[in-house]
């Protein structure tokens, strides 16, 4: 039990310190000190700073994303489903929000090392393919399907970045209106 508590404390402090100082500005000693544990204890749980960072921006990010996706009504109309995705991101707070923010910075290439980014990009590529298949079913006008799909994916990425990275509070009605407009274009 003590090991789990120490590991969770390390993880939470690592998120906070990486968020404040960035990957390159954070040392394992900083994390051990903030977690009130020895360096050997820290290295018992995480072999390297890279491994700890990857745990946060890949494994923890995927857990947060999975938790958010479980809140979605997958039987909703496509425009409602995509609004739900944005709404769950707007409602993120605390540890989950910081993990999401760190993962976005890695995805954009602003933070971390190459290994974590490679894993995030691989995940994103699979997610984008799944989005394309879903949107293809919802956009009936074949002549604009690819363009609408591309615009919608770019729109979602842009809005999520504004919500998470820039802490913008975008009006729900505006989001609904814009998403609906994109889907209407494909009818």
Give the CA-CA distance, first to last residue.
56 Å
Give the low-confidence spans.
none
- Number-wise, the strands total 0
The number of helical segments is 9
Shape: elongated
What profile does the largest beta sheet have? Answer: none
Q: Name the helicity range.
A: over 70%
Query: What is the beta-strand fraction?
Result: under 5%
Structural class: mainly alpha
Rg over CA atoms, rounded to whole Å, is: 19 Å
SSE series: HHHHHHHHH
Average pLDDT works out at 91
General description of the model:
The chain has nine helices and no strands. By secondary structure, it is mainly alpha-helical. Helix 4 crosses helix 6, helix 4 runs parallel beside helix 7 and helix 7 crosses helix 8. It starts with a helix and ends with a helix. The model has no long low-confidence stretch (mean pLDDT 91).
Structure, briefly:
By secondary structure, the chain is an all-alpha fold.
Question: What order do the helices and strands come in, and which of them pair?
Answer:
Blueprint: H1 2-25, H2 28-34, H3 39-45, H4 49-70, H5 78-90, H6 94-107, H7 114-138, H8 145-164, H9 172-185
């Amino acid at each position: 039990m003590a090991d789990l508590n120490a590991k969770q404390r390390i993880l939470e402090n690592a998120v906070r310190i990486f968020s404040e100082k960035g990957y390159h500005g954070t040392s394992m000693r900083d994390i051990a000190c903030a977690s009130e544990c020895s360096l050997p204890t820290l290295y018992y749980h995480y072999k390297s700073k890279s491994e700890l960072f990857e745990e946060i921006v890949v494994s923890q990010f995927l857990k947060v994303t999975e938790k958010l996706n479980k809140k979605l009504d997958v039987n909703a109309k496509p425009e409602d489903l995509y609004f739900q995705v944005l709404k769950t991101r707007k409602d993120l707070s605390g540890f989950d929000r910081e993990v999401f923010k760190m993962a976005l910075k890695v995805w954009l290439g602003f933070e971390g090392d190459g290994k974590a980014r490679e894993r995030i990009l691989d995940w994103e590529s699979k997610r984008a393919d799944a989005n394309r298949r879903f949107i293809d079913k919802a956009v009936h006008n074949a002549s604009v399907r690819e363009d609408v799909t591309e615009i919608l994916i770019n729109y979602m990425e842009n809005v999520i970045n504004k919500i998470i990275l820039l802490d913008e509070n975008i009006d729900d009605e505006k989001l609904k209106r814009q998403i609906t407009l994109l889907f209407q274009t494909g009818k």
